[in-house]
Amino acid sequence: MSHKSTGRFLIFLLASALAAGIPTAAAAARHPSVSHDYGDALTKCIMFFEGQRSGKLPPTQRLTWRRDSALKDGSDIGMDLVGGYYDAGDNVKFHLPMAWTTTMIGWSVLEFGNKMGYPDLRHSLDALRWGTDYFLKATSVPDRIVAQVADPVLDHDCWERPEDMDTPRNSYLLNASHPGSEVAGEIAAALAVGALAFRKISPSYTKLLLNRAIQVFEFGDKHRGSYAQSVGAGACPFYCSSNGYMDELAWGAAWLFKATGDNKYAYYVKSNLGTSLTAFNWDSKFAGVYVLLASLDYAYAANADNLVCAIMPESPFKTYTFTPGGLLYAEGASSNMQNPTALCFLLAAYTRVLRAQNRVVQCGDVNIAPSRLDRFVEGQVDYILGSNPLGMSYMVGYGSKYPQRIHHRGSVLPDIRKHPERIGCSEGYGFFRNVTSNPNVLIGAVVGGPDVNDRFQDSRLVVSQSEPTTYINAPFVGVLAFVKGRANV
């Protein structure tokens, strides 16, 4: 763009200011100053996971419109697979995103647990254990890992409450002849994170988790291959593995190094280090490895610096875009909100490394200090919680204006206490097509969010915008604890 024209230059400055989150008169008009209650948002963010629980619910269940479900999972293969989480608005247990969700809840506890406060920390540990307990079941038979439970095609053809579902609950197995290194690497990471989180609470549980993490990692590394090929139609097009499996194996090894201190895992990571900075999510883990190990080796810190330069709006090397209202946006993302929540988690975690090393990140001729990362993360959080052009909180139950018609079976269909009669597969679509607000509030659910122009359709039909997922909320637990801690300083 030429800067010779004063008018065009002013337009450029205005666009740059909006993208960078720098206050302008127009931005102030659209984003009135709002003081957000980060503690309330954190409590609700964690509560969301109770709405995603599968299996026998505990007496402490706070979202009481949910009831026991899928109590025979695993019976088709003679295993107990009761428990775990439904990934989003459906009733399938996809283990790859579920394991990443579990890992990120655990990392949130390890990184920012001291900023949560006792009740939220306890509930975060409950959410973590709901995942680790389940993955102990899914890996209980040596040299066999369960990759998924339920036929996703048939499940998605129905609109049923989890408590009513009668679609096939078949189990998808991985073994030596049908490998799945992505699932193995991520489950190993989840179990290793759990071992670290519960180390001071339950040494015996920690030992069980760590031994199983080592066993699962070794299986995934020895029998390399993509779970997408082994599971087939059960994986794609729902959770295809587009980045291969080496990032998951390196991720699992990185967490095993943190949990054991064994240098063989550090060597494994260094020998298999990738350079992808395209994303950090259930399918892409290298960026997480860089930040996790940045304090140990310059090679990791250099890549973590590159990640900062790829994200920050003022960086000449940025690869991410932003909506006019300032939300980080990844073009082509099926559910964009997973990007700002996960990437902000990495930035928040990396500020601790930068401060410990007393340095800034240099992006060409632009220096980015930890305090700038702090403000950026807080700005993204504020946008998600309602400081945006629509004044819409994208967390259900937070603020006065939030999505009312989210794409979620349990939230859309009536509470089983009020409607005890079974609602069949096709019968549920009558409730789905109803344009009224969902009867059950899935408190804390962060939905897919607005489009690249800050527009949002509060409609169950627009799945990419209105569906919540566990892997949006999981890193947001840590992000909210981070901004809550800053607000309390």
UniProtKB/TrEMBL annotation:
Residues 38-480 form the Glycoside hydrolase family domain. Transmembrane segments: none annotated. One of its GO terms (biological process) is cellulose catabolic process. Gene3D superfamilies: 1.50.10.10. Residues 1-21 form the signal peptide. InterPro entries: 6-hairpin_glycosidase_sf, 6hp_glycosidase-like_sf, Glyco_hydro_9, Glyco_hydro_9_His_AS. Keywords: Carbohydrate metabolism, Cellulose degradation, Glycosidase, Hydrolase, Polysaccharide degradation, Signal. The active site is at H407. GO terms for molecular function: cellulase activity. It comes from the Eukaryota. Its EC number is 3.2.1.4. It catalyses: Endohydrolysis of (1->4)-beta-D-glucosidic linkages in cellulose, lichenin and cereal beta-D-glucans. Belongs to the glycosyl hydrolase 9 (cellulase E) family. PANTHER family: ENDO-1,4-BETA-GLUCANASE. This is Endoglucanase. It comes from Linum tenue.
